[in-house]
Design a protein that fits this description.
It contains eight helices and three strands; from the N terminus they run E-H-H-H-H-E-H-E-H-H-H. A three-stranded mixed β-sheet has the order 1-2-3, with helices on both faces. Helix 1 runs antiparallel to helix 4. The chain is globular. The relative contact order is 0.14.
Length: 211
Amino acid sequence: MAHWYLAVICFPGKISQTSDLDLCLSEARHSVEYLFNQSPPNPMSLFYSPESSKQFSRWSQSIGDFDQSVCFLSDDEAEDDVKAVKNRSVLNSVSKPPCILIMDSLTCSGRASVVQILQEYLQEEWKVKMGSQQSFGKEAMKGWSPLVPQQDNFTDCGIYVLQYVESFIKDPPQTFHNNMDLNGWFSRRTVKRKREIIKRLILKLHRQQRV
């Protein structure tokens, strides 16, 4: 409808992080073969998690030296390890839960239909890449519309989208919740200068290509 706005999918892999971790730890206690036959997490996957990659490396870093393998931890040590990982996951999930952020410079509406489409996409993406079923419905992944700087005309929506992306990368929110206020992210003057900055960048690249 001739309007641009931004949707950001945040932390989709966290939805099943705890359950996957429980499964791996449980299987590791009973089967050395299971542990060492696992493929490392694929960093190109939408659901890749650096934490899961570190966990995998820690489990399998000493295949040739079984004495140092997690498989030979005592029951008490294994339980402590599980609790420590779970505690970190819980603390991290409090401030950074799985969510979809809708940033619109003309309205603060949630655009529920768009959120639903993205949730359905994530569900299909998970099925294809992970080979299992995982729900990304509203109970698992909320859709929120943070308060963001608003445009004062009907022509700057694309510029605002670019600025939202730039600000999200340079100064990402530290906590994620239903009442996020990002109004102070950038000034209107910053947006008004954006076209001139893009123009200078294009001309600079043009000159470099002609050399």
